[in-house]
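Please, structure for the following, as tokens.
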Amino acid sequence: MKILLHICCGPCAIYPLRVLREGGDEVCGLFYNPNIHPYEEYRKRLAALETYAGREGLRIIREEAYPLEEFLRQTAFREEERCLTCYRLRLSQAARIAGKGRFDAFTTTLLYSRYQKHDLIRGIGEEAAGRHGIRFLYRDFREGWAEGVRVSKELGMYRQAYCGCIYSEKERFCRPPRKDNRGDPLTG
């Protein structure tokens, strides 16, 4: 099959790309990630992917624009639904491009992550596929997590510390103040 693989970053592409190619599929990558913040993080992830894609002979489709505003517009004041919104934005774009590009199906490296919501991704992927007349290929790539981490480290790839959005960055790096047993903030 001719598969469009939505890719969030280089390290996450390693295992899914290998599995799809070993299955005889022709794979083309798509880098569409309006959620990634700040811009320097976006550039680092894209550069790591482009380097890896060059090494693997993987064609990448991407826009020149950095469409952060679209993500922010749809998540502001709905932060608790941010993952749903983020998945919908990215998978809808992947389905649209796959349908227009005469691919047989599309899938995503989000299905490689142990930290993503697989049932939600699957449902949104299938919904987007139905709207754009293309098949969503659900594969649970999590079994290759350790292999992808190992290979990415061996290759010296840039590895990010959070999923990409400003909210996950805050959760990762901005810890709430510690409190004592009465609930008062600890000082000094």
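The chain has one domain: 2-173. The two ends are 61 Å apart (CA to CA).
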